[in-house]
């Protein structure tokens, strides 16, 4: 269930790739926001976020507007490291 170190974004299931794209397009979102944007079930989004966190491309933070929820965002430094570019250059390679 947990990802290996060698696992990358290309190795993830389609639901995790969709969640990645939703975060890439919309920026930081709560799990509820990701569910609404992706139209995936809450359970599927939880699993996708877990897989994305396992490989280090998504970070979880406290959502200050409602501390019961978490805010999810892409880890730009990890993404830049994977593509071998700086953070600014990696944002341009989309």
TrEMBL record:
Gene3D superfamilies xref list: Winged helix-like DNA-binding domain superfamily/Winged helix DNA-binding domain
Name of the protein in question: Winged helix-turn-helix domain-containing protein
Organism: Haloplanus rallus
